[in-house]
Design a protein that fits this description.
This protein is α/β, with parallel strands linked by helices. Helix content is about 35%, strand content about 15%. A hairpin with a 4-residue loop joins strand 6 (about 190-195) and strand 7.
């Protein structure tokens, strides 16, 4: 997509109940009108070659609708089955070592979680299981609510793993997230910021260098905690 402008308009009716009217009055909102959110991103210039894309924005900022408008409705695919253990859902051509490497790298390090039905896992564990499974897809992959239900240490480890895997396997992965603290770990090839309504092509040195030293120290601590899997993950 070259020199494209994408607009998203989200609108809905406002309830005229007593409580809604009181809330609307506090912000001088006319309940007879619709609630409208207008998102406009200009000059979207996706590079011809890329591996990791990042769409940032607060909840309700239009990330999901924007992604569908750019990449199509079918970009959102949930292939995770809750009745099966996650380790049984990897492609047949993945041996045990490869499955274990992906699960460890994505932050799902408990072997017990690998062999229980996905339905028994916590929301954070399910999110990691789904991300691990999506990494095995060959087509363009989009992961919504990236790291929204995991702690921030795990979020950074997951982000490091995903960006490393996508570049090694030459996959295209798009992540939708409301968290800015994972940006340096993902090292995206392009960013759409719905909060700022801006498209950006970060140049790795200029964009990431100010925090590179701090990032390396954080990575060393993560590797001490999780082992060499983060630094030398083989997927």
């Amino acid at each position: 997509m070259i020199n494209s402008t994408v607009e998203v308009i989200l609108q809905s009716k406002v309830s005229d109940s007593f409580r809604c009217k009181r809330a609307a009055d506090s912000l001088d909102i006319d309940v007879k009108k619709k609630s409208i959110h207008h998102l406009k991103i200009e000059n979207i210039k996706l590079p011809s070659v890329w591996n990791v894309g990042l769409i940032l924005g607060a909840s309700g900022s239009g990330k999901t609708t924007l992604a569908k408008k750019i990449f199509g409705e079918t970009i959102f695919k949930n292939t995770l089955r809750e009745d099966l253990p996650i380790i049984e859902q990897f492609p047949e051509n993945y041996d045990y070592e490869k499955c274990a490497s992906i699960l460890n790298g994505i932050g799902l390090t408990s072997v017990v979680c690998w062999i229980r039905p996905v339905s028994t896992l916590s929301n954070g564990q399910k999110a990691r299981a789904e991300a691990a499974l999506l990494l095995t897809r060959n087509d363009l992959t989009l992961i919504d609510e990236w790291t929204s239900v995991v702690d921030r240490t795990v979020a950074k480890a997951m982000s490091h793993c995903v960006q490393k895997h996508s570049r090694k396997e030459n996959k295209q992965i798009i992540l939708l997230s409301c968290h800015y603290d994972i940006l340096e770990w993902i090292k995206p090839d392009w960013i759409i910021d719905c909060n700022k309504q801006k498209f950006q092509l970060p140049k790795s040195d200029a964009f990431f260098l100010p925090r590179k030293k701090k990032l390396n120290l954080q990575l060393e601590k993560l590797e001490e905690k999780h082992g060499n899997i983060l630094a030398n993950i083989t997927i």
